[in-house]
Amino acid sequence: MQATFCAALVDQWIRDGVRHAVIAPGSRSTPMALAIVGRSELRVDVFHDERSASFAALGSAAASGMPALLLCTSGTAATHFHGAVVEAHLSGLPMLVLTADRPPELRDVGAPQTIDQTKLFGAAVRWFHDPGVASLAAEGTWRSLARHALEATLGTHAGPVHLNLPFREPLVAEPLPLTAPVLATRAAAIASAGVPADWAPALSAARGLIVVGRGVDDPAAVEALAAATGWPVLADPRSGCRGSSVAVAAFDGLLRHRSFAESHVPDVVVHLGEPPASKVASQWFAASGAVQVRVSPRSGVIDPSHSTTHRFTGSVSAFCGSLAAAVSHRVDPTWAASWAGAAERADAAIAAAMPDSDQLDEPSVARVLSEVDGSLVVASSMPVRDLEWFGSARQRATVWSNRGANGIDGTVATAAGIAAASGEPVTVLLGDVALLHDASSLTALASRDIAVRIVVVDNDGGGIFSFLPQASALAADRFEQLFGTPHGTDLVALAQAHGIHARTVRTADDLRSCLDRPGTQLVRIVSDRTANVARHDDLHAAIAGSLDA
After folding, report:
1. Lower Cβ count inside 10 Å, N or C end of the chain?
2. pLDDT score at 271
């Protein structure tokens, strides 16, 4: 009966559009694992460790918009899913977490591989359910259970769902013929209502800004809103709008310039999707006194500065179209032109300061990768900031980053999941600590039918901490002990031990050449943490100089 139960759930999920499963091997999960691999409609990826598996499922959801089935055995195996479950929760990404469990008679009696898995992930999941050991009496509920679980992962409150599935031995059996499906085709719906009528007066200002991040469903709608309002678009690399003719790419550098920031205070800021990484920008928005509109395709509050005045949940493109029709101010062409001219000078200053045939540094690596076609996954430490601050205004890369919880864990696995779901090569930009944090994801990576190009900036420690007050407030040896944390690992040898082609490069041309190589590989760029801080200071100074000129 367990085999039939699992087969029914999997069959319904396939009928409702699920196409990917990620499995961490184990014994107790055998009934569900066999049901999954028995269906040719599913792509199945097996990861040796649960954390890598869970972040691969996260990447799959990010790329496809649908949850992957994420399966593990009982016991502590399930606890290793927690980091990715939290990221999915905060990023609004769907995930169907399937944890096998021991039957009730083996709980609380010291049975091996048995822990309390009830509501294991707490409030991070949209729904938790334990249906108990499968029985024929409940057969009529199986398909609706599958539908309920799937629908709870999707919509404006998308996120993970946890099904805890107890199985009794014997664990291997053949399923009985399935009952015919009776559920209607699943209808995906999202709120698409426009701007409330009473908002229009507050939003009818000539000096407005559009800030775009992840969650924009149609960049063309953002461009149309910019044209109708005359408002500049401050584009995060993840927004899909960075290469637009109306986008302001180097906004962090502009807002570090006191004179520019003080003379360009807006009356309205419309935030579309998730916020950018720039702390300078977020503090400037909060201090501006402007009307702050937050638009998101998913429910939940994004307002760390407590300054949001208007909140809208629904289709970003529908909101843009409605706002373009509702605002009534006279467009001031000089407002957008002043931003565009400053951004053009800033981008030119960054480009002029970038090495060509000389030694690569951390900002120049980000800029090179921003101009490479295809998917680019960046770690949520310095890489995402370097890409936002110094990436090209002509960005071609489609950028992904786990910015829900802003952790560095699972970066390589996330890229593997995106590659599996998209069928396209994926490039990863991360630091050495982030790579070591996810070293388990290198296991068998070279043998998978995906291409993951890992670009690792190696400064032998936690480079981002060198930008924080601790770097100057503490003695050098204490800072290195607690924050610099040098490890001395040979990253090229680490990759080669996993059968991954790896080498160290020093120039932008060498980096581009490596990225043209097919298959999975690791490319290492050497950096110095102290020199990197000075390099960032020089680039900010170059931007300031371009504005002063």
Report:
1. C
2. 96
